[in-house]
Amino acid sequence: xxxxxxxxxxxxxxxxxLRLSCTFSGRTSGxxxxxxxxxxxxxxxxxxxxxTWSSIRSYADSVKxxxxxxxxxAKNTVYLQMNSLKPEDTAVYYCNAGWGTTYAYWGQGTxxxxxS
Length: 116
Description:
Layout lengths: L2 E5 L2 E4 L4 E8 L6 E8 L6 E6 L5 E3 L7 E6 L4 E6 L8 E9 L2 E5 L3 E6 L1
């Protein structure tokens, strides 16, 4: 059973930075991809960033130039570096992992709150 654990959320002032981590266990072989999503109160969950096994990255327009996704395969960990945070980045952030074409595994989420 694959488990994902996010960490690194917290309260930060606008303009500040946070780095989220997502560490997975239970399956450590094979080519995986990882995505980050977020969900603000009263809103639908939205895509934030993704990284493939071959390190191809993609970002939502709202975070381009401010967020960076990276991974450390040796540590089974994917990171989301978030800079120049804005109040509208406030949300619960979730990581989502997949092997192959199906991204079936989710973490429990970590809260990010950006104060103005």
